[in-house]
Write a structure and sequence with these properties.
3 domains, 4-stranded mixed sheet, elongated, Rossmann fold, 21 strands, 4-stranded antiparallel sheet, Isoleucyl-tRNA Synthetase, domain 2, alpha+beta
């Protein structure tokens, strides 16, 4: 029977087929990675899809069940290296074997529409899409802090780091600054959030909450601590302003320290004459750039010996390097308010830093002996020991403080997102070539569309 079905192309989807009056139905399961052999997970998924195909077809739908191969990536490259063969050879051999296994199962696949991600005919359109998004400014290049796997010699996504180690190699992840191409998905953060809130009918509430938290919209104030710190050439670092973002500007009068990321320009400058600080910064760079990891790791710090000026009180504020501050989040610096942030409280207790109350809740007594949940309450608090802001509740304090910072030219209200732009140049050799030319005369320029695809050599053994 299977030979007959194959001979007559029984599963080939034909446009406007009169046998199927209910119209088209696209039944696509996740395309497999060509690892070499089908496993029971493949059998399960494609059997479910096959059953759905046959049921819909019998009910009058013109069903298309396509198949393709997610064929690029590091596993193929690593396997090829282990076997001393080109990744292309290893990949195409696996595809041939897995296709034979699928055909023997009798799956209702339209093989006339088979695609393979590592063929130039396919990845030409990846490159075309890259160029179109580059034209629109959706794709751009910048130096960013990334998860670096020293064994696999590649960048890993946050989801590929487990307990601070690479998910494949098990190596301890390092933080590195690498120039990469990014997709500007943060431009669509509000639109994404609106869809989560209003246009996902039937989705479980926990999934919607997870997506909302992933996008992570925050409203607060971005402001600067002025300073006159100069680099070796005599230029003022960062134009004399160290910026931070906070959702609790009402507690600004409780700032007793600031912490910067190990990669921050002030940290780099301070480390030049301080071997101990340089060693601490190097230690901090061993670890992931995942926010969740930062939340659970032991908080460590070291003073830089540098001071910035509080923008409203004029007090001198000590700058520390903190292993929990990410250069890729905000401006790579945070204000420390131990009295009203639990992380800052524990950090201050560990390093014997001042703890200064700036808001209070009626009927509650503040003590720096131990953290209490109400210390971080913004719904019921009023400003205290905060000069002209005393007695203001959260919303009024935010408005007043933001207005004063704006009048000084040092800050403004701002909306930020936890969502980060998507790094898209993580692969090593075995991946779609990025269609950019590095020219000694012209700099970095895009490949003309007429010259696509940029072909990846298939005879290389990494």
């Amino acid at each position: 029977a299977q030979s007959h079905w194959k001979a007559i192309d029984a599963y080939k989807a034909v446009e406007h087929d009169p046998r199927f009056p209910k119209g088209k139905y696209y039944a696509c399961s996740m395309l497999p990675y060509p690892s070499g052999k089908l496993h029971m997970g493949h059998v399960r998924n494609y059997t479910i899809n096959d059953v759905m195909y046959r049921y819909l077809r019998m009910n009058g739908y013109n069903v298309l069940m396509p198949m393709g191969w997610d064929a690029f990536g590091m596993p193929a490259e690593n396997a090829a290296m282990a076997n001393n063969v080109p990744p292309a050879q290893w990949t195409y051999s696996n595809i041939a074997h897995m296709k034979q296994q699928m055909e023997s199962m009798g799956l209702a696949i339209d093989w006339s529409r088979e695609m393979t991600a590592c063929t130039p005919e396919y990845y030409k359109w990846n490159q075309w899409m890259f160029l179109k998004m580059l034209e629109k400014g959706i794709i751009y290049k910048k130096t960013g802090t990334v998860n670096w796997d020293p064994i696999d010699q590649t960048v890993l996504a946050n989801e590929q780091v487990v307990d601070g180690r690479g998910w494949r190699s098990g190596a301890l992840i390092e933080k590195r600054e690498i120039p990469m191409y990014y997709a500007r998905i943060t431009d669509y953060a509000d639109e994404l959030l609106a869809y989560v809130d209003d246009k996902l009918p039937g989705w479980p509430e926990r999934v919607r909450t997870m997506q909302t938290n992933w996008i992570g919209k925050s409203t607060g104030v971005r402001f600067a601590f002025p300073h006159a710190i100069r680099d070796e050439a005599g230029a003022v670092i960062g134009e004399g302003k160290m910026y931070v973002f906070t959702t609790r500007p009402d507690t600004i009068m409780g700032v007793t320290f600031c912490a910067v990321a190990p990669e921050h320009p002030l940290a780099t400058h301070a480390a030049l004459g301080n071997p101990a600080l340089a060693a601490f910064i190097a230690e901090c760079k061993l670890g992931s750039v995942i926010e969740a990891d930062m939340a659970t790791m032991e908080k460590k710090g070291m003073p830089t010996g540098l001071f910035v000026t509080h923008p409203l009180s004029g007090a001198q504020v000590e700058v520390w390097v903190g292993n929990y501050v990410l250069i890729s989040y905000g401006d790579g610096a945070v204000m420390g308010v131990p009295a009203h942030d639990e992380r800052d409280f524990l950090f201050a207790k560990k390093y014997n830093l001042p703890i200064k109350q700036a808001v209070a809740v009626e009927g509650k007594e503040f003590s720096s002996d131990a953290w209490r949940e109400w210390y971080g309450d913004k719904d019921n608090c009023v400003c205290v020991d905060s000069g002209k802001y005393d007695g203001l509740h959260y919303a009024a304090a935010v408005e007043a403080i933001a207005a004063d910072l704006a009048a000084l030219g040092l800050g403004e209200k701002k909306v930020t997102f936890r969502l980060r732009d998507w790094g898209i140049s993580r692969q090593r050799y075995w991946g779609t070539p990025i269609p950019m030319i590095h020219c000694a005369d012209c700099g970095v320029v895009p490949v003309p569309e007429k010259d696509l695809p940029v072909i990846l050599p298939e005879d290389c053994v990494p």
